[in-house]
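Journal club side-thread
Mid-discussion, someone asked how the predicted structure for our own chain would compare to the paper's figures. Pasting it here so we can look after the session.
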Amino acid sequence: MRMSAILLVLSALAWCGLGVGAAEPRFAEVVPGYRIEFPRDEGSHPQYRTEWWYLTGQLEDSAGKTFGFQVTFFRYRPGTDEDNPSAFAAKQLLFAHASLSDPSVGRLLRAERTARAGFDLAQAREGNMDVHIDAWRLQRRGAVIDASVATEEFAFDLDFAVEQAPLLQGRDGFSQKSPLPAHASYYYSLPQLRASGTIVVNGKRHTVRGTAWLDHEWFSSVLDERAQGWDWIGLNLADGGSLMALRIRTASGEQYWAAAQWRDRDGRTRAYAPEDIEWRAGRRWRSPRTGVEFPVEWQLRLGKRTIALRPLFDDQENDARGSTGTLYWEGAVRALDESGRALGDGYLELTGYGERIRL
């Protein structure tokens, strides 16, 4: 009886691709020399293991009130059950995170969705930007990107006019995440998106305008065994320029890898070498829910320039361990130059502070 039960379980595992006889999945590799093309590469890349479309920004209503927002769609290929012809097989999984930063609330409003791709209920299409889970959607139509999210606490329906060329990160879109080129992503950004639309929070509707930033990355192996987490900033500068900077940290908090790219208002770009980038943590905030401590103020040195980062408010922790398995701080921030003058605004992401980031 016991042996029969074991054989039955092994047979079931083999059938669904998890056990005996299951072929090892082959994920596409990220290698130098790939040419990112538009609009083709704005769509999904299902042959890679992981992909995300990350949209963040800051908005202001007619009364001058500031909001931050985030909506992210993740596509994940589990690599199991891939030979199963059934339409119900979970060959691609989709996750979505949405959040609203409202200083008058004082904490991050957040929600998430999880679905198996298929039946047009959840889909990440190839060839153009069109990803959705039920009514949550991110879609490009010509020179405009639409994003719509509705939750119990908040909702937004926003349009984003694309007015600048894509910013290819790393070397023509090949973005290393360690000293070894085997750990990298294909990565481009759409900064300085001109945002408009409506936000609903606490039953009140706000007509808003502002600027936003979209990141799109896809990869199969992005972090190596030394990486504990990362710190990332995307800034829309007041003069029309943009800045992306990131660093990968070890478990001891040391900088393991770093990258940054500055595009000025005339479209000229400068990439910074890892040794020219330094993240200096300032004031810290401890979450009353998880007990994790995040450095929410920073001094970011890029060559001879230093930029101060200050949060819109402290409690912008996003606990997504129930979906993507991550706990992170993702919040609206203001950037100041060396003299304390406003330089721009954007979003700061801090991962791996409670435990090692898992993708």
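Post-session note: The first helix runs from residue 2 to 15.
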